[in-house]
Design a protein that fits this description.
Elements lengths: L1 H11 L11 E2 H6 L1 H5 L6 E6 L4 H4 L4 E11 L2 E8 L4 E6 H6 L4 E7 L9
Antiparallel strand pairs: 1-6, 2-3, 2-6, 3-4, 4-5
C-alpha cells in the first residue's frame, strides 16, 4: 500500500506527453514471410492493439502485450506470460496474428549486444 501511494504521488506530477510507436501491420506480417524471417531471436515483441474504449485508455493505439521472439525449427514463436493459463507460453507468431484479427500489428525491439569493456 505504501508503494502504491508513492506511485500515485509521482503520477500526479507526471506530464501528459504524446508518444508514438512504429509497428509492422498485422496484414503485412501474415502475407510477407520474408519480413518475419528478419526478426532476430531474442527480440522484444510488443503487441499493438486498437482499444475499443479510447475514453478509458486515452489513446488510439496501445501496447497490450509484450514477449520475446524465439526461433525454433525455422518458426518464430512469441514467448509471453499468459494470465489465462497462469504460465509462460510459446505461441507460433504467425498463427497468433492470424487468429487475432483485432490486433493492429507488432513492434519489434532488437537487442543489440555491446562491448561492456569499451
Amino acid at each position: 500500500q505504501i508503494k502504491l501511494a508513492q506511485l500515485h504521488a509521482l503520477g500526479i506530477n507526471a506530464s501528459n506527453n504524446e508518444a508514438t510507436i512504429k509497428y509492422l501491420p498485422r496484414h503485412v506480417l501474415i502475407t510477407n514471410t520474408n519480413l518475419i524471417k528478419r526478426i532476430p531471436n531474442g527480440s522484444i515483441i510488443l503487441i499493438i492493439e486498437h482499444p475499443t474504449n479510447t475514453n478509458l485508455i486515452g489513446t488510439e493505439l496501445n501496447v497490450t502485450h509484450m514477449g520475446l521472439a524465439i526461433w525454433r525449427q525455422d518458426k518464430l514463436y512469441f514467448r509471453a506470460a499468459s494470465s489465462r493459463l497462469n504460465r509462460v507460453t510459446d505461441l507460433n507468431l504467425i498463427n497468433y496474428l492470424r487468429t487475432q484479427p483485432w490486433l493492429k500489428g507488432i513492434s519489434v525491439l532488437a537487442i543489440i549486444p555491446t562491448n561492456l569493456k569499451n
